[in-house]
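quick one before i forget lol
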Amino acid sequence: MNLKLRLTVLQFLEFFIWGSWLISFGNYLFHLGMGDKIGTLFATTGIASFIMPTLVGIIADRWLNAEKLLGILHLLGAGWFFLASQAVTFNQIYLYMFLNALVFMPTIGLSYSVCYSIMARHKMNLVKDFPPIRVWGTVGFIVAMWIVNLAGWGENSKQLWLAGASALVLGVYSFTLPPSPPAKAQKGSSLMSVLGLDALILLKEKKMAIFFLFAVLLGVCLQIANSYGSAFLGSFASAYPDAFAVKYNNIFLSISQIAEALFILVIPFFMRKFGIKTVMLMSLGAWVLRFGLFGIGNPEGAGMIWLTLSMIMYGMAFDFFNIAGSLFIEKETPAKFRSSAQGLLMMVTSGLGAIVGNYGAEAVVNYHTVDKNQVDWPACWFIFAGYALVVGILFAACFKRNAENADDAGSIIIN
């Protein structure tokens, strides 16, 4: 099989697994009568993102081929998915999904490492050849969402069977990939360097400390819609049972992932035209609209327009901060700290921010729950929008860049 095709299959399956359950699982919990625990369960991905990628990275860097480690983790994940699909209590579901998160979340970065290693060993151009491969990961995520929706599995445990089966396939497939052997550890490396935390020294600088603080605050927004979006659309079932956004809520929610892929294409223009700070402010403004439009939307008429616009805003909200933030790290940190700083950014957004966001969102939703399954969703979304607005105002006031660097952002992404 062609090497690019093999890596494309890897990325497709990696995100297919995630798309099989991430968006629809909240609705499944609501139908189990566990809607008040959605944030608690989804916080497991944040906990796993905070502690596991570094540990897995150490193993792959020092002791075990990355493709073999990737296969082992996915085989373990398949087992946890199958057990979770049979669970009947929340404690059982939580345990198995937490164990799954511990082995799945580090595979995202590990799948990139496998691709980079194989491509480098075969003299491929990473900048030119990897993006067309990675985009198939987004396609895999969307395809999985559509399958779950069209098969009617969004409200039952069969979505976990699909995730488990695809994890099993990828686990076996990973062992067939070309070898990605561990690099030799450098002598004299400090414990902080080994753990990938040497970038913490950057927090002594006020500008970087402020940036990472806001990365945490923005990370709070990232999983709210993923955790509660499907349950929110499902709440319209009694009033709008035949509406497209209700019957095919996963397909409708996949507009967000499609928009995400498209907004990546316009980032070079916005970075060149407006610079990093403005692009990140656009992201925060998009989060305000993402949540606010949910608050005024419904599945018919003008309300459907607002819901659709909310889906589109997700693409800008997600991409503009993540890409601009990554480029800010690339530009503002010394070369020896860049890899660690990028890892730290992932830890504070997808880790710490996601933990705080999921527990915070759960508290807000539970406070506005009339009974087990009736939630005042507009009040919840307006609170989330208000939070994003306050963070945006504070970011505009607090985050400063050196004037001589203000126009550098465009060259980073264009060249």
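fyi The radius of gyration is 21 Å.
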